Amino acid sequence: MLDAWYMDDDTTMDQREEHRLKPNKPATLEDLQTLGVLHWTFDADSYKDSPEFAAMRAERGYDYEDTCTVSRETMPNYEEKIKSFYEEHIHSDEEIRYCLDGSGYFDVRDGQDRWIRIKVEKNDLIVLPEGIYHRFTLDNKNYIKALRLFKGVPIWTPYNRPQENHPSRTKYSQSFLQQLQQMAA
Predict the structure, then answer these.
(1) How far apart, in Å, do the first and last CA atoms of the chain sit?
(2) Domains along the chain?
(3) 162 upstream amide cis, omega within 30 of 0
(4) What share of the chain is helix, strand, coil (3-state, %, to 5)?
(5) Contact 71, 78 (CB under 8 A)
(6) pLDDT tens for each residue of 161-170
(7) Binding site annotation covers 91?
(8) pLDDT for 83-109, tens place per residue?
(9) How many CB atoms lie within 10 A of CB 119?
(10) Are 39 and 125 in contact (CB under 8 A)?
(11) Contact, 95 vs 157, CB < 8 A?
(12) Are 87 and 160 in contact (CB under 8 A)?
């Protein structure tokens, strides 16, 4: 089961800590879905033979993949890289990550610009929609191995906030944020 919660604003704590509000305020899967965030669970030890995984990939058009391991041992300039992943940004494509081992956090902005932290562990596949403000960090275990999926040629370009006039942000705002505002009215 996916664990997600609204974050505190404590900037003195390491980004790899949980940063839960006190008292904790969970974010539900429905909360995430209203933001366009999708989640699946597949057995990371046998996903290559999984008809369900293959069907999801085909249905969503994910035809390219690679594997990325983030740890002190595998990544040069580890601390600088982790800090750069934690810069708030958008992409002009979906961000699809399937956790094969280890764990980490994806943070996304909700409709009121509050951070929601999503814990991703082995077997979790998460899709962040094009144009959503987000960031990534490892947890205090400092290790994740993830399968990255793409539609076509991979594009990894982050566009750091502010990006309100970027076409992908405009598309996201029209698709999700305006719907949230209408629901709240």
Answers:
(1) 31
(2) 3-184 (2.60.120.10)
(3) yes
(4) 25, 35, 40
(5) yes
(6) 999 999 999 9
(7) yes
(8) 999 999 999 999 999 999 999 999 999
(9) 16
(10) yes
(11) no
(12) yes
